[in-house]
């Protein structure tokens, strides 16, 4: 059974950090591009960061220099390290695996507020 599961969300103060994790199972993780998307209330889902099978990465301009995406194929895990968080980063964050097929997780809520 294919599963993509996010964890690590929560409430954090502006300027704080969080690390999101994405666990994949039931598919050949290393074959897939992994990405983090986010969706704030009333807004469209947007791409935050992605990491390709070979390790190359790309980021949305809004998070460059603050967020870092990584993957560990041996553990079938992907991560999003988020530093210097801002209230505008508040959203539900989703892990996406894209390759021969496409899989989505259920999302994890990140709230940045004092």
Describe what is shown at a glance:
This protein is mainly β and 114 residues long. The chain is built from no helices and eleven strands.
Describe the protein in words.
There is one protein chain. The protein has 114 residues and is mostly beta strands. The protein contains no helices and 11 strands. Strands 2, 4, 5, 6, 9, 10 and 11 form a 7-stranded mixed sheet that branches. The protein is globular and about 40 Å long. The mean pLDDT is 97.
Largest sheet: 7 strands, mixed
Principal-axes shape call? globular
Strand content: over 45%
Q: Please write the string of helix (H) and strand (E) elements.
A: EEEEEEEEEEE
Number of helices: 0
| Low-pLDDT sequence parts | none
Class by SSE composition:
mainly beta
* Fraction in helix: under 10%
Q: Mean pLDDT across all residues, rounded?
A: 97
How far apart are the first and last residues' alpha carbons, in Å?
Answer: 40 Å
Please report the total strand number as a whole number: 11
> What gyration radius follows from the Cα positions, in whole Å?
13 Å
Q: What descriptive keywords fit this protein?
A:
114 residues; mainly beta; 7-stranded mixed β-sheet; 4-stranded antiparallel β-sheet; 0% helix; globular
SSE blueprint:
Layout: E1 3-7, E2 10-12, E3 18-25, E4 33-39, E5 46-51, E6 57-59, E7 67-72, E8 77-82, E9 91-98, E10 102-104, E11 108-112
Parallel strand pairs: 2-11
Antiparallel strand pairs: 1-3, 3-8, 4-5, 4-9, 5-6, 7-8, 9-10, 9-11
